[in-house]
DNA sequence: TTGTCGGCCGATCGCCGACAA
DNA sequence: TTGTCGGCGATCGGCCGACAA
């Protein structure tokens, strides 16, 4: 997926991806400790060392086919210790060689994220569209219509297109998604606490990405929370 | 699973399972040709031979955890060619040594199979219980009630219990499953042409097994069939 | 005896404005 | 501006007898 989408979906709390040709340390034991699946195809010699100086030879951006969660694949090559200086290992924010990430087309992408409320995630319910999202991302409604309404076609990070009925109604007036939203929540298995990120590129095409809630106690109904509290004391 | 259930579910067209200690021929190439997954852990020497005389050392009965389809695991041990006679390789119907299959408790099991009609398989619909099934397998209804009705608890081949509302009604009167049937069809992903087999052991406990339809053109709606016919000419 | 259909009733889905935070 | 709720209309699941094969 394009780096610009990755940035928007990873969110502000995510670390900036490393830059191609920058130098980093690889900690084999830390990798083993934190990785969900064991690293493969690495010689036992690698594991015997506490730290290995490396050069970032490639950074690629992906979205998980099942969960839509974004992640990176970072290709590392070991380098001789003598050929580097301490400065090379500082967190790089600008390319130290060939303004990298294989993505020169870093056009501006407007994005708007929202954490889903229980009402948003409730199946059969709709989605309260944040005002900023409607103004910045979606095509303007014709407010002479009563009610103003349009059907949006928004692409997810795998290229699948989702349709949402976008309507401006109620008292006081507000932007809502109705038809299509429920199917999206169901398909993506979204629960309250998760986030959706709506994006628009310079051509006006709209995209939607997800960020799953990592806090374990969230995404439960009030009843479930109380029940859990009772069990855990 | 018990051999008696396996027999009932495999049906009359299935070959009788081999008997323990009987002698059979193993055809490696035939195995490779017909098996869905390649046989493993066999030395290349085995594949080089067209046929290998074997002794059946174990026969075990299983039901696929996902599809409920019954199958056998037959453990073979190669035997020296000289130690056998032609008679040993005839299809055995009675044990040639130690009345086998590890299942002496072959009590009588009453069973009744039915091929599902479109109406049976239609989600939201019921199930027309064959008269023989109601008479032979299920507990008798109290025909003084109006309508006669009971809830049956029937165990599948994995030990899961399913509830069916069994009612005798309509004009003319007939046996039907209503509540519970739809969920069963959905969970087991049954389509018209598949079969259900109801069984009762000597203790009166009821069981249900499945047999999937192997004919490829079946299980389609009329519209789908016509459409397929049109494409295929 | 049993396969298929139309009717119909109740449950659920999902759209709505009201209201308050 | 927007989260939650109750209302309620449309849709669908699923139970029913009629009727014919």
Amino-to-carboxy terminus distance of chain A: 44 Å
Low-confidence residue ranges of chain A: 86-104, 221-233
Largest sheet of chain A: 7 strands, mixed
Quaternary structure of the protein? homodimer
Question: Strand arrangement, largest sheet of chain A?
Answer: 4-9-10-6-7-8-5
Radius of gyration of chain A: 22 Å
Task: Tell me the helix content of chain A.
Answer: 10-25%
- Which whole number gives the mean pLDDT of chain A? 78
Task: Provide a count of the helices of chain A.
Answer: 7
How many β-strand runs of chain A? Answer: 10
Give an account of the 3D structure.
Chain A is an alpha+beta fold and 233 residues long. The first copy, chain A, has helices spanning 3-10, 28-34, 44-47, 118-121, 131-136, 181-188, 222-232, and strands at residues 23-26, 52-63, 70-78, 110-115, 127-128, 149-156, 161-169, 174-177, 195-200, 206-211. Chain A has a seven-stranded mixed β-sheet. In chain A, a hairpin with a 4-residue loop joins strand 6 (149-156) and strand 7 (161-169). The longest helix of chain A has 11 residues, at 222-232. The first copy, chain A, is elongated. Mean pLDDT of chain A is 78; it is low at 86-104 and 221-233. The structure holds a DNA duplex (21 and 21 nucleotides). Chains A, B: This is Auxin response factor.
């Amino acid at each position: 997926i394009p780096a610009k989408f990755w940035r928007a979906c990873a969110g502000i709390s995510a670390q900036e991806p490393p830059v191609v040709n920058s130098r980093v340390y690889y900690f084999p034991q830390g990798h083993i400790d934190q990785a969900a699946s064991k690293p493969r195809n690495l010689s036992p010699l690698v594991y015997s060392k506490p730290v290995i100086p490396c050069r970032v030879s490639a950074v690629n951006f992906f979205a998980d086919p099942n969960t839509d969660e974004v992640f990176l694949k970072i290709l590392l090559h070991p380098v001789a210790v003598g050929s580097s200086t301490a400065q090379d290992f500082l967190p790089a924010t600008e390319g130290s060689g060939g303004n990298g990430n294989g993505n020169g087309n870093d056009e501006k992408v407007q994005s708007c994220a929202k954490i889903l409320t229980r009402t948003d995630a409730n199946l059969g319910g709709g989605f309260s569209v944040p005002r900023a999202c409607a103004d910045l991302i979606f095509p303007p409604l014709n407010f002479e219509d009563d009610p103003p309404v349009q059907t949006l076609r928004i692409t997810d990070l795998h290229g699948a297109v989702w349709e949402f009925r976008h309507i401006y109604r109620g008292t006081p007036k507000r932007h809502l998604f109705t038809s299509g939203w429920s199917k999206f929540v169901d398909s993506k298995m979204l629960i309250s606490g998760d986030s959706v990120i709506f994006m628009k590129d310079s051509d006006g095409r709209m995209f939607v990405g997800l960020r799953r809630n990592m806090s374990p106690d969230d995404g439960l109904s009030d009843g479930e929370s109380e029940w859990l509290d009772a069990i855990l004391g």
